[in-house]
Amino acid sequence: MRVERIARDKVRIFISYDDLEERGIDRDEIWHNGKKVQDLFWDMMETAYMEVGFDIAGPISVEAFTMPTEGVVVIVTRIPSMPGAGHEDGDYSDDEGSYEDRDHGFSSRTTPTHMVMAFRELEDLLAACKTLRQYPVQTALYHHEGAYQLVIRGDLRPDQWEEVFAISAEYGEMSRVTPWMLEEYGKVIFADHAVEQLLRNFPT
């Protein structure tokens, strides 16, 4: 299990299939809000609090989606109790009904809207781009933490996202950074149409 804080009120948690197996949870079972899944969720929240100080003493939304080899990605977002209100860590009311449902699980499965893949070598990135160009995605390229970071966005079907991930993972790996971190700290190579520009600049 790995926790990343991607905003003040949002964390992203990676749960490997090994994590699920250790807890006796089948891949399909995670979408059924049983006791083992609820226990896993609260273990995740405890880990998020211990590692990055993320407290959920207030209303939250939970989104989850699966990746073919990586496991399950869960995004937990704290929701202000009043429209337009912000929170500081720990500054929450605990009124009755502040949770829509305290038996949180992963029933709110969603389709991802983006992913970031890291490539150590330019040749690996180019090899992935040759196949990725057939998909209707928007891409940007950064250099950060010694790797080429390809941001992939699009309105794809779940099976298309799985194909895009499988293609990218053949040559690279899921990045530990978010698009927002790259926009702030990464070195921009191509702000848009990265796949097309790479293949245009490095024809084979």
TrEMBL record:
Alphabetized InterPro entries for the sequence: MecA_C_sf, Neg-reg_MecA
Pfam families the UniProt entry points to: MecA
Protein origin, superkingdom: Bacteria
Gene3D superfamilies: 3.30.70.1950
Protein name (database record): Adaptor protein MecA
Organism in which the protein naturally occurs: Alicyclobacillus mali (ex Roth et al. 2021)
Region Disordered: start-end pairs: 85-106
Family: Belongs to the MecA family.
